[in-house]
What does this fold into?
Amino acid sequence: MPALTARPDLARNMRFAGLLYLVIIITGLSAEIGLRAPLIDLGNADATAAAILAAPGQFRLAIAADIVMALNDAGLAILLYLIFSPMARGLALSAMVFRLIQTVVIVASLMSLLTGWLLLARADVLVDAHTLALIFFDLHAHGYDLGLVFFGINSLIMGLLVWRSSLFARAFGAGLAIAGLVYLFGSGLRFFAPELAPVFAPAYALTILAETAFCLRLLLQGSTGHEDF
It folds into this structure.
């Protein structure tokens, strides 16, 4: 594999990829766990409606964070393709396509959140607005997990790319591959065995660990310009 010095654009792309990845991690976790989770209880329509109507700014901020995440995700997909395409163009292109599909699906699912919000805003003139809104919030959750199916495939491909490259230690590739399996299995539970999803939820800590580690390695490797990590 060529050294970083032989590809002066490589360190820059790694650095920018790390920055985008960091924004994605922060905004994604903030939207889903920090902002939205305290408001939405898929088992209680009235409590969810009351929580969202009491904190509309927080609900809107979660949507804004998801949009920022998606914008950065699209940029990251392109940068990772530029980084890995000289080594395995087909795999790099496949990874980019699956990541972009994930981004599109997750952005499209935001319309369900907006529909739920519009229903709650008109609860005084609509029958069963709270129940209908909760259905759309549940639809968003399913859409999010559908997006993660494609991201799980992306993570498996990225794990293979990182494993085969000489740019990163193989442990990072293994971590991304494990994250991909977690995403695929967890999303499958959402659709086919939802009652088991809460039991499996702690496994997502592995995805946060693997992706954060890879993000920091991109930042550090892009900053130092060294190849053997």
Remarks:
- Confidence is low (pLDDT under 50) at residues 1-5.
- The longest helix spans residues 129-164.
- The chain has eight helices and no strands.
- The radius of gyration is 19 Å.
